[in-house]
Write a structure and sequence with these properties.
Elements lengths: L1 H15 L2 E10 L11 E8 L2 E7 L5 E8 L12 H7 L2 H8 L3 H6 L4 E9 L4 E8 L1 E2 L4 E2 L3 E6 L4 E5 L1
Antiparallel strand pairs: 1-2, 1-10, 2-3, 3-4, 4-5, 5-6, 6-9, 7-8, 9-10
Length: 160
Amino acid sequence: MRSRLNVALLGFCVLSGCSLTGRLYPVKGPLATLSPSPVYVAKITGFRNSGDFSVVLGGGEVCKGRWQEVPRSNTSSKTGTPENMAATNMSAEWDTVYGTGFYVAHVLGAKLYARAVVTGNRGTILNVEIYRPLDQAESKPGTPKGVAKDNKDNIYKLVF
């Protein structure tokens, strides 16, 4: 019952342009070695295929940027070159957070798959990817999942 409510709320938020709150948990890197590990609250707003992403990191560093839906690859298109794909996809981070093969099995080709580059006011650059699985039994969107990596060698799990 609770998951249906979350899906309905998420659908309403995406369609109405309201916000969604997530949490970033460090899973690898310097922040993951701290005890206790910090947890950062992220806010996502937007409508349809783009919007804003913000998070406040340690020491009050405010990071802001835009998320945008990743278009599905078109086999006849030359824009999805291996060089471009390697520079943007975070398949290794997905597999680090959720297990080997997760990116290929779940994220690649997902109907809702988005990326953001979020810049902090103290120099942190955070690359974020989010996907929303489709509940196969009900053909309805499931709870979004995400990963992030900063320019300080930290990898995060993004939970909604």
